[in-house]
């Protein structure tokens, strides 16, 4: 056995100390440069184009963009703003966007029509994002009073299903009202000009009408009837060929959800700034619990219910009930956050 001298021990000890100091200094320089160097599209990963309806229910997307969470997740997201989810979905179908945020009803119609899309995750679910607003001076105080009235609604969207569900549960046949197919601005204008008796409106237009018209209107929410869902969708070919980008987007949305829960006031200000809604209004409308990245059985049940409704109304061809699980690319969310996938598969 060779015994080292004391001088040799001291030399090795000093050498170790010097190496440790140099290593610490190098780590500090690297960290400093990382903080000083902004993340740019060239080092943020492949560009991902996402079509987004500029609504409060898109809060996860808006927070993720506002806090650079997409870049931190390694994806360079370019948002395409739209008024409605149905328009965002069309951007994907036309090959102009990689992914889109859209409500469940247009998703259902698209899939039944043979559209080549798949669902990645639900990103919001709200019970008070949609309502029927009616002129109270026309004797409309309850849903039953809508018989014989004219109602503005955007056909092909979740508004159509919501309105029909509200009528049915209160015993009013669908053909007992006149449905006018009007986009958001046109519907609100027609309502304010007294050309229609009622209109289906989503937030924040709903809150603005309530503030502007006060007790001249009657508002019917229907929290027990319908849950407003937004879903992240894309073409299967894109999803399968870009797993890293897709999972990066999901990681960013999960981080945005955590940010909303941790600091809801800051999150709602970000959303309000993006949508040009004042913070006082946002404070009334923004509900942190409305947001979660998930694929659950409730989504499948909602799609099944809406499919039966569409077939009964003759809006789509009658056929065997599709298995919507086949249109879910749950493997991506499962790889990022396994607990978020609760559909039986």
Describe this structure in words.
With 345 residues, the chain is an alpha/beta fold. Helix content is 46%, strand content 17%. It is built from 14 helices and ten strands. The strands form two sheets. A five-stranded mixed β-sheet has the order 2-1-3-10-4, sandwiched between helices. It has a five-stranded mixed β-sheet with strand order 7-6-8-5-9, with helices on both faces. Helix 6 links the parallel strand 6 and strand 7 (178-181). The longest helix has 31 residues, at 6-36. Mean pLDDT is 87; it is low at 1-43.
Biggest sheet features: 5 strands, mixed
By DSSP (H or I, 4+ residues per run), the number of helices equals 14
Structural class: alpha/beta
Radius of gyration: 26 Å
What strand order characterises the main sheet? 2-1-3-10-4
Order of helices and strands: HEHHEHEHEEEHEHEHEEHHHHHH
Give the strand content.
Answer: 15-25%
Summarize the SSE layout with pairings.
Layout: H1 6-36, E1 47-53, H2 59-66, H3 69-72, E2 76-82, H4 85-93, E3 99-103, H5 104-112, E4 118-126, E5 130-135, E6 150-153, H6 158-169, E7 178-181, H7 184-192, E8 198-202, H8 205-213, E9 217-220, E10 228-234, H9 236-241, H10 243-262, H11 264-275, H12 279-285, H13 297-312, H14 330-336
Parallel strand pairs: 1-2, 1-3, 6-7, 6-8
Antiparallel strand pairs: 3-10, 4-10, 5-8, 5-9
Helix pairs in contact: 2-10, 2-11, 5-13, 10-11, 10-14
Key terms:
5-stranded mixed β-sheet, 14 helices, disordered N terminus, 345 residues
Summarize the structure.
The chain has 345 residues and is of the alpha/beta class. It contains 14 helices and 10 strands. It has a 5-stranded mixed β-sheet, with helices on both faces. A 5-stranded mixed β-sheet has the order 7-6-8-5-9, with helices on both faces.
């Amino acid at each position: 056995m060779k015994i080292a001298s004391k001088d040799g021990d001291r030399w090795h000890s000093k050498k170790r100390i010097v190496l440790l100091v140099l290593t610490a200094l190098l780590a500090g320089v690297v960290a400093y440069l990382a903080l000083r160097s902004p993340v740019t599209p060239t080092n943020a990963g492949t560009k991902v184009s996402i079509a987004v309806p500029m609504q409060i229910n898109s809060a996860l997307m808006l927070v993720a963009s506002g806090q650079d969470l997409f870049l931190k997740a390694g994806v360079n997201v370019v948002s395409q703003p739209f008024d409605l989810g149905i328009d965002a979905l069309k951007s994907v179908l036309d090959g102009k966007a990689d992914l889109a945020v859209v409500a469940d009803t247009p998703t259902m119609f698209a899939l039944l029509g043979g559209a080549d899309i798949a669902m990645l995750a639900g990103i919001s679910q709200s019970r008070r994002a949609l309502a029927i607003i009616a002129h109270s001076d026309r004797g409309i105080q309850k849903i039953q009073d809508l018989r014989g009235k004219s109602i503005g609604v955007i056909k092909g969207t979740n508004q159509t299903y919501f309105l029909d569900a509200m009528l049915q549960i209160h015993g009013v046949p669908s053909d007992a009202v006149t449905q006018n197919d009007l986009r958001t601005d046109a519907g609100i204008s027609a309502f304010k000009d007294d050309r229609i008796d009622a209109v289906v409106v989503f937030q924040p237009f709903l809150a603005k009408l309530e503030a502007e018209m006060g007790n001249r209107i009657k508002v019917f929410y229907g929290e027990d009837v319908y849950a407003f869902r937004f879903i992240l969708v894309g073409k299967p070919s894109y999803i399968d060929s870009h797993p890293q980008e897709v999972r990066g987007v999901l990681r960013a949305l999960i981080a945005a959800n955590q940010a909303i829960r941790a600091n809801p006031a800051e999150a709602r200000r970000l959303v309000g700034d993006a949508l040009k809604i004042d913070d006082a209004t946002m404070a009334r409308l923004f509900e942190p619990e409305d947001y979660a990245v998930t694929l659950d059985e409730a989504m499948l049940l909602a799609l099944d219910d809406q499919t039966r409704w569409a077939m009964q109304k003759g809006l789509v061809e009658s056929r065997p009930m599709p298995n919507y699980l086949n249109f879910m690319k749950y493997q991506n969310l499962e790889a990022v956050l396994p607990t978020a996938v609760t559909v039986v598969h």
